[in-house]
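Hi C.,

You asked whether I'd gotten around to modeling the 341-residue construct. I have! Everything is below, sequence then structure, no commentary in between.
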Amino acid sequence: MTDTTRDRTAGAGADRVTAPEADWDTAPGLLDGAMKLTLGPEDCDLAYWITSVAQGTLRDRGVTGHHEDAGVPELLTRPGPLNEALTLEFGFRSVAEEIATRLLGHYVARAPGIPEMEFYATQMIDEARHSRVFRNHLVELGRPAATLLRDIDEMAADYRRRVLRPVEEFTLEVIRDEGDFLGGVAVFAIVIEGVLAPAAELSERKWTPLSPATGEISRGTAIDEIRHLTVASTILRDRLREHPEERQRVLDVIGRGVRLWDEIPDREFVIHREELFQEGMEEHADLIGDHEIWPGVRMLDTTAEQRYAMAERWTDEMAETRMAYMELPVDVLTGGPGRSA
């Protein structure tokens, strides 16, 4: 458990102190937080969410996901590769978060105890908020609000069918049809969040030097994802310590999920966006300057392929760290002996 400070409400008007991992200024980056922090459902209950998230992380950022002083530069609202890259990225992410929100209703219903129920109820709200701020940011980029939902549905139709639907159906099979809460937690923590989180980290690093508003939206969602990943990992670790007989079933679910993700053609969608970003980045090199996308490497010196490869590397490193924390064999992620046939 981290050194968080709980809601100090001994008397009316008592000061509230935001937990450091949820504080805008002190929260770690997504990768560091997801790999190093330890949080459980008892730490991140409903009271925590109200005080440290709604009144902490989101203070002055609750409507748009960014502070009103963090603007969208005019260059991003003009038709061109940067506008198209960001529109595709946030449009697709808004659909993914919408699906996650709907899936999480099953986690609330299946939760074995109150701490787990409260945590997944707050994660459901988090994902709904993410979908909303990604979606509405497109209006700030120039998309008409009146047709926004229809435009996103049309834009993301192929992505939804080929990438998101197989993951959605698999998750429903585990959590709804099989009634496997612990397996469902593994699906979200290792397969869904575990694969998508590094892309979210890359998003924050890419857009921050170009658009303060976009960077803040990515920062706020990353702070939430740290909590989702770490709490889910603790739920799995603690349950498997108490019920080691469930270990192989969870490994089987993780193995099924990893195999599924290996078959999904997400790369072509990500690379297309990165190539558009590359073109726009080079057009506006003067704004980016010496900004480092990771230590010692200027963003201007990277290619679409290199950024994608780094996100994949982050995926592997984060998954291995979380698996070790859960006391599960890392080789299950690559089809090794930990995965049953």
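If it helps when you're writing up: The CA atoms of residues 81 and 276 lie 5 Å apart.

Thanks,
B.
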